[in-house]
Design a protein that fits this description.
four-stranded parallel sheet; 5 helices; single chain; 6,7-dimethyl-8-ribityllumazine synthase activity; alpha/beta; binds ligand DLZ; about 160 residues; Rossmann fold; about 20% strand; two-stranded antiparallel ribbon; 6 strands; transferase; riboflavin biosynthesis
Length: about 160
């Protein structure tokens, strides 16, 4: 059997999300940005076949609460993947670092604890403009990317299990 050349893999193609169930947890802090990211994620999931009735959308106060919000969804719903959406903007104090550390480690832990994709849809920026640029502005919408990542990870799990 001929070995498939790695360059033949179509990295741009996205599997169908028709049979998949998703959770989206959105931080209320910087909602002008996180709301746009969540909308991008929702639109992209639906564009790739997910049914709106198979998407559970919940809010938490801030980015720091995202891992626990995600854990609630993993425990109490039947979703295949959970997208965590937040935006932390650098300020004058070290709060930024603590929130970023907490949400990053928390998300990593959830992925491995539940054997389920928890997607890191968190912007960590120096200022508001950098966040706006990535929430539907000149650099696209990172919510779209988070949704595609969720679909690809669920498809990979379904293929292997
Ligand atoms: C307190 C705080 C600060 C200063 N900045 C942000 C931020 O930029 N983005 C964000 O999502 N949340 C922020 N928070 C709130 C924390 O995430 C958290 O909700 C509180 O510390 C309570 O646990």
């Amino acid at each position: 059997m001929a070995t498939k050349n790695l360059s033949e893999y179509d990295l741009a193609s996205v599997p169908s999300a028709e049979q998949m169930k998703f959770g989206i947890v959105v931080a209320e802090w910087n909602y002008e940005i996180t709301g746009a990211l969540a909308q991008g994620a929702m639109d992209t999931l639906i564009k790739h076949g997910a049914k709106e009735s198979n998407i559970v959308l919940k809010h938490v106060p801030g980015t720091f609460e995202l891992p626990l919000g995600g854990q609630f969804l993993a425990e109490y719903t039947q979703v295949d993947a959970i997208i965590l959406i937040g935006c932390v903007i650098q300020g004058d104090t070290r709060h930024f670092d603590f929130i970023c550390d907490g949400v990053t480690q928390g998300t990593t832990d959830l992925n491995l604890k539940y054997n389920k994709p928890f997607i890191f849809g968190v912007l960590t920026t120096n200022n508001e403009q950098q966040a706006l640029d990535r929430a539907g502005g000149r650099l696209g919408n990172k919510g779209d990317e988070a949704a595609v990542t969720a679909i690809k990870m669920v498809a990979l799990k379904n293929e292997l299990k």
